[in-house]
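ok so for the tutorial part 2 we go from a plain amino acid sequence to predicted C-alpha cells. step 1 is just haveing the sequence, like this:
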Amino acid sequence: MSCDIGRELKRLRKDRELTQKDLAARVDGGLDYTYIGKIERGEQLPSLKMLMGLSVALGVPVSHFFQEESPATNSSLRMADSDVKSMELHKELRQLHPDDIPLVVDIVRVLNRHRKAERKRAYQPATEALPLAAEDGPSYRKF
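step 2 — the prediction. this is what the C-alpha cells look like for a chain of 143 residues:
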C-alpha cells in the first residue's frame, strides 16, 4: 500500500510540475521535503493527517490515494478549485478564536447582501432603468 500511495503522490506532484520542496511548502503546518521523498519511494507510510494535508495541497480527495483506477478515471477525481477553497475556508474557521465569530458572521452577511444587490442590478430590465411617459420625469420649462 505504501508503494501505491507513494507512486500516486509522485505522479500527482509531477502532473502539477511541483518539486518535492514546492509540495512540502504547500502543506499546511510545514513539512520537510525529504519526508515526501520517503513516501514516494515507499519507505514511509504517511499518517492520515499528513495524507489529508497532501491531498489539500494537491487538490485531490484523500480517497484518491486508495483507489485502484486508471489514470483517465483518476483525472475525474480531481477536486474542483471551489472544493479546495472550501476546504481551506473550513480549516481556517476551525482555528478561529470564539471572540472573532460575530465579526466573521457580520462580514459574511455583508458579502451576501452585496452579491444579492449585484445580481438585482445585473438582471434589471432596461425598461425599469428608463422613466416611462406617465412617470415624473425631468421638468420642462414652460414658455
